[in-house]
Each structure stands twice: as C-alpha cells, then as structure tokens.
Specification:
alpha/beta; L-arginine/glycine Amidinotransferase, Chain A; 4-stranded mixed sheet; 9 helices; 22% strand
Length: 306
C-alpha cells in the first residue's frame, strides 16, 4: 500500500464550537467564545484550506455537515472512518457521545457514489464497553511497512487495536506520550506524522527515554528522516501535518499556517525540498477544536468507479 493519496474527504462545518464533551482529554482545546462569529471564521478557514489543497493538486471531496446534527467536531472526520485501496472501510469507536453522531450513512453514500466501497467493518460496538480507537487520530500509519504508531490515551484502547490490526495485517508500536504538564496526549497525530521519506515527531513527549529511542530507531530503520519538534512546536500543531500527493504523485505537505511558521528555517527547508507545502490559517479551528490540518483530512485510498 502506498503511503500517500491524492484524494481526500473533508466535512464542511455547519455548527462548529468547542466541544465540551472532549475538553477533559484534549488539552489542545483552549477557552474561547463560541458564537456565530466563531462558526463563520471556522467555515472561512475551512474553505481557505480546501482552496490551498486544491491549488497544490490534491483532489478534495467536500461534504457539508448537517446543520441540525449537533456535531461540533464533524470537521475532524479522520477519527471515525478510514479507507483502504482494496475497497475496505473501517468505522471507529469514539469516546465523546456527541462525536458518534458524525458516523453518517449519508457521508458514506456520497463516497460510494464516486468510489468503490467493498467490505465495511464497524468497530463502534466497543463504545458500549468504554473502549475507543479514534481512527487515524489514534493511529499514525506507516503503510509501506504495515505499522501503526500509537500513543496510549483514553481514546486509544489496546483491545480495539488488537481487533483491528489483524484485519489490516498491520503491527503496532505502542508507547506513552505526555504534554509538558504530564498529561497523556489525546491523539497520536498531534505529536507525530509519518510520510514517505520524512517523519515529524515530538520525541521529548515520548516517555520513558527507552520508548523515545525505540520510536526514533524504528522510523530511521524504515528510512525516514526524522524532523524532531519540541513541545512549543507541537503546541503550535507542527505534529499535526500530513503528507498527501498531487495527481502526478508528488508529495504535498499539508498543515496550518501557524504550524508552518513554527517550524525552524532548517525544518522548513527540509519540508520544501521534499515536496510542495500547502498551508492556510486555521487559528479558530485549532484554538476551539484542539485539532488542525491533519485532523480535518480523511484520506481516501478507495478505487474510483470506472
């Protein structure tokens, strides 16, 4: 399986606000005013990001959220769905009850209209047991080496991981990662990203030192050049980036403008030397939602209808 795709799915927000059901575990969410102006700012940021991705050659299928759905985090679809080149689709168990409403049949129907969907595996029954695994937020895949990097938190349960990985034929490298206050980082994809040649990771967040060294060795063993970011850069969403591809297969590094500006000049040069950088301001979404550019992208590896 290739590491990157040139097609993605994004959900345009209809009722964006800081989700009270996720604040306890998401330290990236910050207090702020939730009002119609915030929703309009988030929608404008979403549209600007889509435009930047399309300008870089990425194919974006935009699906509007339902206004009456009370789904403040619908803008982050990667947590509830993943797609795969053989047509398989997986649906994931979500910790926050109001996030479970994001798993909409209408979204899958829109995808089916353009792409071939085969087997659909729904893991959401684990929610009844209080066990969660929030898609490619919880797991950062190295597809070429059939490996998932996973930092443990209330949103990433080993039993759900054990149910998923045999179906994918993947193994996992599981570790603990904490923020500067010592709290578990809620999603792996805010502290690391794995691309075809580069990996961005906040190594100082990984505890203990032996685990930190194990993650670095594994990345390097699989040929990744490691861009090591610090806590301040992670807090500015430098870990929440994703490598996509344009129609010709060239790398596109997608991120927020805040993240791009937080990379050092040398790190920026490394990223730019390996692909096109596509960024847009996502300040409202990052501040109130506690997620950013990578969280907003559901990669679409499905084959198109002929």
């Amino acid at each position: 399986m290739t590491q990157t795709t040139s097609n993605i799915v994004m959900i345009r927000p209809a009722n964006f606000f800081s989700n009270p059901e996720t604040r306890a575990s998401n330290r990236f969410q910050k207090p702020g005013q939730d009002d119609a102006a915030a929703q309009e700012r988030a929608r404008a940021e979403f549209d600007g990001y889509v435009a930047a991705l399309r300008a870089a050659g990425v194919g974006v299928l935009v699906i509007d959220d339902e206004p009456q759905g009370n789904t403040p985090d619908a803008i982050f679809p990667n947590n509830w769905i993943s797609t795969h080149p053989d047509g398989r689709v997986f649906l994931y168990p979500m910790e926050a009850p109001n996030r479970r409403r994001e798993r909409r049949d209408s979204v899958i129907a829109r995808i089916r209209a353009q792409y071939r969907v085969g087997e659909l595996t729904d893991l959401s029954a684990f929610e009844a047991e209080g066990k969660f695994l929030e898609g490619t937020g919880s797991m950062v895949f190295d597809h070429a080496h059939r490996l998932a990097y996973v930092c443990l938190s209330t949103r990433s349960h080993p039993e759900v991981l054990a149910a998923l990985l045999p179906r994918l034929g993947y193994q996992a490298l599981v570790f603990d990662a904490v923020d500067r206050g010592g709290a578990a980082i809620y999603h792996t994809n805010v502290m690391m990203a794995v691309g075809s040649k580069l990996a961005v990771v906040c190594l100082e967040a990984i505890q203990p030192t032996s685990a930190r060294q194990r993650v670095r060795r594994q990345l390097q063993h699989h040929g990744k050049q490691v861009i090591d970011i610090d806590y301040t850069q992670m807090e500015n969403f430098c870990g929440n980036v994703i490598e996509l591809a344009d129609a010709a297969g060239n790398a596109v590094f997608a991120m927020s403008s805040r993240a791009w500006q937080a990379f050092t000049p040398q790190q920026q040069a490394t990223l730019a030397a390996n692909g096109t950088v596509a960024h847009a301001p996502l300040d409202t979404i990052e501040h109130l939602g506690g997620g950013g550019a990578r969280c907003m992208v559901a990669e679409n590896f499905l084959p198109r209808h002929r």
